[in-house]
Amino acid sequence: MATNPRQSAVDPPSDDKRWRIVQAAMRRNGFRRDALIETLHAVQESFGYLDEESLRYVARSLRAPMSHVYGVSTFYHFFSLKPAGEHTCVVCTGTACYIKGAPGLLDAVGKEFHIGDGETTEDGKVSLLTARCLGSCGLAPAAVFDGQVAGKVNREAVVERLHAWQNGPAAVKASPESSPESEGSAVYA
Amino acid sequence: MADNVTLTIDGKQVSAAPGMLLVDAAEIANIEIPVFCSHPKLDPVGCCRMCMVEIEGPRGSRLMTACTTPVAEGMVVHTNTPQVAEVQEANLGFILLNHPLDCPICDKGGECPLQDQTMRFGPGISQLVEPKRLKQKNYDISDMIVLDQERCVLCWRCIRYLEEWEDKPQLGLHNRGNETVIDIQDGQPVDAKTSGNIIDICPVGALTNQISRFAYRPWEVERTASVCNHCSVGCNIRVDTRTHTVRRIIGRENMQVNDQWICDKGRFAHAWVNGENRLETPLLRKNGELVPVQWSEALDFIAEKLQAVKQQHGASAIGAIGSAKIGNESNYALQRLFRSVIGTNNIDHRDGADVAGLATGLPSLAGVMKPQYGPNPQVDTIFLFGIDPSEELPILDLHLKRAVKKGGAKLIIAHPRKIELTRYNGPYLAYEPGTEATLLNGLLRAAAGQKEGLNSTAVSHLADVKKWTEEADDRALADLCRTDPAAVKAAAAMLAKSEKALIIYGPQAARGSDGPAIRDGLANLAFLTGHQDRLAFVGLEANSQGARDMGVLPDRLPGHASIGSSDAVKRLEHLWECKLPTAAGQSYKQMLDGGVKALYVMGADPASERPEWAEKLDGLDLLVVQELYLTETAKRADVVLPALGWSETDATFTNLERRVQRAPKAVALPQSRAAADWAILSHLAQKLGAKWHFADAKALEAEIGKAAPIYRGLTWEALGDQGLQWDASALKSKPELKEVRQKMAKGSKEYPLTLVTGTVLFDGGTLFGATEKLDGVTVGPVVGLSPADATKLGLTEGAAVAVSSPEGSLSLTVHISEQVQPGSAWIPESLPGAPVGALLNGSVVQRVKVEKAA
Lengths: 189, 854
What we know:
Chain A is of the alpha+beta class. Chain A is 39% helix and 13% strand.
């Protein structure tokens, strides 16, 4: 491989200060091509997702083919190519949750909000994700709302919570933490 | 070199070079190790896990991949133990889990490594009870290649080919696990010029040929080993035919020429062979109309008419145009007919005498390939002058990229356009057409200033050199040539420093009246820097070299003998039983500009090059055209004779490194009455009273060996399927330094841009245009402008413009390209409906203006 310069010859796509974090990550690794994953980590963490512009910038800076950069960013689950919504809902699809009705939850969200796994509502408010297993099988079916695990959720509860996110707290009668939407549901901080 | 290591594979002793991979060592011992991802021409990755073998070690036997493990002294390897068999079966079971079993409709069926290996090593029954996964099928990744992601076994061969050879990583591996696919990015089609090779190396039917799709079954086709006829590299190919039609073309290995790769033009553009509009009977003009006639009537008419013109105006009023697209035999027959029977030297071909060529071609293509393969590089620096291999000679382009990337060769490029290869390490010398000699003088001047690496004989003339080249100083380079003086200095230093540099120039650089000056300028530079043996002129057509060798030139006899050479004249007069004309003949341009009354054209289409020539052709006493198609020129002819083309008749072609190769007959045209070019000429000679009796092409080859000493011994049988190079040592001339001057064209305010022309691979010519499925990649009638000039003129991509010169005007659309230098307008040759010759009208350098179309 040709020796890369210690300095990036490529200017970042914009004046956004977050690019400095990305540049620092690349400089720390001497702009080596094998530091691609770390660089993408920096982009993901500072911007929340990888858009085409940032992928091209990273590819040019590290002198890596775009096909490699794109391949790596689609390989790892951690990287997202689309901006996440303001709020995220992760539905567990592990064996226990599956049996207890996880497909039904996804189906309900899909019907109500027209989003599938990995997609975000048009207004950018809510993203839906799935997880292989949360390890909370005793609470099946489980879901994670903005980092908070909720157990024994049902279709209505999920839909209501997502509506609340979309329409703002004012539109909901009670705050999610305090409202027992359904019998037997428990919210863990 | 280190000694070979000895290892044992399945009880056989094998001696292999250190560093060799186990899979290659096994092949030496004729032991088969099944592979998918491993390919002898690609770097190992070891991702398919098919090549597992057992290697004995201190802690017992271990399973390892043979395609990534290098050989070691005393290694003991087993490829056929029960454990290996179990792994192979399991691995195939895994690959077949999702591979669709649509072999009956798959183009690969019958020559598919997966099929073969499943039969040999795989499980007998499918273990999958679940439905197979679904992915994209019948998915076009370019106009020429179809991808079937379900059939793909993810071996990465296509990805690696595009990265390692083409240096264009246009395919990638996306997603993960069960969902992994090979895909293009953002819908951008694969546009590498040799992309079709990934079809050949795909071990399954995932990549198939869009042009030949469903047109053949591998076990039904007849296979003919041949050479490609699209450019002068002369790639070795295999032509697969059935029921008198060419079904597909694939690459064939020749390590001296094309490795095993061929370009997309060679692979896909073959529909012209079986084109619908091929000429099938002789046509004679009666009452202004071309009507079908018998051969005898047509030939009688020509013979009578030629004799009448000869009697009335003399033999010098008759001319003949040969073709660098046609084999040696027919070109030889053409010049023999006109020299010995008619008695004229008015014989030439396009890019013949109008271009200042050199007789000897490239020293060897292997010299360019060697840096990537051998520890013993034959060239370390390559200087391309006015040639764009990416568009003109794609396989040379592939070799060059590889030589730079793998062999560390340096690439210096001088071209009016910033061609694709400029992305590598060497300096790029842009120049304005018409200032080539000044640029070369500038290079010579910079080279003369070097302290080391100059030729010791040439150095004694250093004072003269400095005096001649005084004017080509930095200012002249920057102002006249628009070349960066620093790049000129860097290039000169690299040439002087280089042990063995190869200098290649093409017809575009040495055309017209300045051609000889430019050739001498290059010779000066090569001599002074000590590379005079490696200065090469390469023509662009399949038989550019051969047409010159055969003496299809107004001032050269077969074998590059001068028409005044008494030896050659004596030999030929004895062989041909005639008296040879002594006066030099007219060149292609002179004949078409009105120098002759009767013209015999074999496989050329000057009428479509320049409107003015088309008019002049109408005024001739006799125009005979021997052609495959009714071209613009043929439409104006008095007699049109239908010819058999490449792959329809035995022929030999001589490539750019003087390698004479066979292109045998592969298809017959049972409906057609067309005849081989040499056969038509032979019959015509008989009608003119000569005693010609050539039974076949081989008889002509035997005679060529007698007429041109350089071709002695190059018979059909001797050439074999890899061809032979003729020996150029007899043609070496003593190098000398010559003063070089070039008259500068004056700039003009009215016409602010300099016209740059050149060849593009996917042009709209007769041969390429016949393959309709390739219409999408054909370059349309465009004019290339630099972003700066486009902004200045207020033009955007795709805008309709009129480009005019003092000679004429063309309607074109704008294509904005970074490759085009500011101050120039680029119009490729042979674009559909846009003869750039209309603007040039015979000159080489032309100024143009670009205006918005009204």
